[in-house]
From TrEMBL:
Protein name as annotated: BZIP domain-containing protein
Amino acid composition bias (Basic and acidic residues), ranges on this chain: 9-25
Subcellular location: Nucleus
Pfam families: bZIP_2
GO cellular component: nucleus
GO molecular function, one term: DNA binding
Keywords per UniProt: Activator, DNA-binding, Nucleus, Transcription, Transcription regulation
SUPFAM superfamilies associated with the record: Leucine zipper domain
Length: 93
């Protein structure tokens, strides 16, 4: 009785090796994309934090000025802009 099925050939091992290499390349590429995405997320959040810090500093300056001098036209305009902002308006009401 003979053996059943295909006989292993050298080209099969070469094909397997090439598939393995291709899979490894794809894995490295996915890993690179994942890290790029995470880096972009971190950068965006850092920008948002900086923007919030600047806004907070601006508010602190306004409050300090109000404590010292009272309200002037520039501050009135700033407060008017804030009340026109839909996000802030919902917080005030």
């Amino acid at each position: 009785m003979g053996k059943r099925g295909r006989k292993p050939m050298k080209s099969d091992s070469n094909t397997r090796l090439e598939k393995s290499r291709e899979s490894a390349r794809q894995c490295r590429h996915r890993k690179k994309l994942r890290y790029e995405y995470l880096e972009e997320l971190v950068t965006d959040r850092e920008k948002a934090i900086i923007q919030l810090q600047q806004e907070l500093e601006r508010i602190r300056t306004i409050c300090q000025y109000l404590d010292q001098n009272g309200i002037n036209n520039e501050i009135r305009q700033e407060l008017t802009q804030w009340t026109d902002d839909p996000e802030i308006a919902t917080l005030i009401k």
